[in-house]
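Field reference: sequence -> structure
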Amino acid sequence: MKDFWYMITGVIFTMVAVCMVAVSPARSEPVTDVSAYLKEEVVTFSLSNGISCLLLKRELAPTLSLITSFRVGSADESYDTMGAAHLLEHMLFKGTDKIGTKNYAKEKKILQKIEAVGETIDRLSLENPDNVMLPKLKKQLKELQKQHKKYIVHSPYDSIYTRAGGVGFNASTSRDKTAYYIELPSTKLELWARLESERIRYPVLREFYLERNTVYEERLMRYESSPVARLFENFTALSFLAHPYRHPTIGWKSNIPYLSISKIRKFYYDNYTPENMNITIVGDMNVKETRKLLEKHFGSLPRGHSQQAIAIKEPRQNLERRFVLKDQANPYLVIGWHKPTAPSREDYVFDVVASLLSRGKSSRLYSSLVMDKQLASSVNAWNGYPGSRYDNLFVIAAAPVHSVEPRQLEKAIYDEIDRLLKECSNKDIQRVINSTESSIVFDMDTNMGIARTLNYYQTVFQDWWYFANYLDQVRSITCEDVRKVMKEYLVPGNRIVGILEKTE
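Structure field:
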């Protein structure tokens, strides 16, 4: 569910979460070198079926932060399954044949009838919306759903985890990954392992059509009702003509009502496999016993197949792409440039460029366009939109103040880019490095913050050491590196511009 905003916070993590001063739970002295601490303390291993695991013992409190994630997101969907990963995120809260039901033997028979009628309605609606059988079938579906209600236990996991002292039970889906989170007392580790392994092993897609309608309403609320969200949706689709990054994680308005339960189920069993899965646990635990427990509950999950890289590559862009969206909303501007993703050298450099341009009130874009010239009410630059598994975009977005035209603000942004090219100094770079070293991200003070960071890099890049080695890479960047990537990538022919114009 966290698509655009998750990417922004992910960039913040990348830039500032690499250094924290904390007290090691295993030592009495403060931890000043987080990279060395993580490399020494994080235990990495794979279960017998291929699930990768990261464990970090921290005894600050008798609690555990637990994440199960899959290297599966909307980028892995086809035209038949767009929105599948997001919808499955919803469905995996519904339970199994043992959880979330009052009598699964009887419920199963109704579920089979609901699926047969629902699939028929979808097929006929696509082939012939005026089919005379549709009203009767829809009435039948409602009646079956009414019968089904008496077998359902709503929010089954919430109630179990709440009674066990759990907090923060949630999930997220992006173009790159899907993850499920919970914080529990350390004594409830086996409860979590049993519940989560069974949730993954045999999820029951109960209330599928009702949940599909919920997602459709969510789509209307988050995208159709938000001009800025629609601006970004069109901007992303125009930026990626071939690669599946172009599709919104939630799916398109026209395809969500026809997502097939049988195709969604197949997508799940094809992709949510041990080979694509990571378990990250941070907190108070016996590492040796935890490893045994994970093997006991998760090691028997059936293997699937190794995930294949997406074959479609975005063709090189040689001409500027530009569009204008007119709406009764305040103007907005978004500009993007194609670039390589991690672990390329260019990706590290663009992290630094983003900081030089917009990190803090003393950054170039903010001090010039917001404070001095008063052309914008807000301006931000970030790297790695809309995902990081594949080549992505460097993006600048800004909101012009009243009476300033978006194109006027756009020109001012290009002027600041040119100014950085000419005026970049080692002092500027050192300021970014110092800021990165001294900044403490609040989430990194917590078990869940550390777990999220480790899990993100292990799942997306399949190597959490990317995070551990990040600061060394940033320290090696020079102004020459900055000029080189800006001259190569921040050029008109590689540019996509989206403008939201206000109509009276």
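Note: The chain is about 45% helix and 15% strand.
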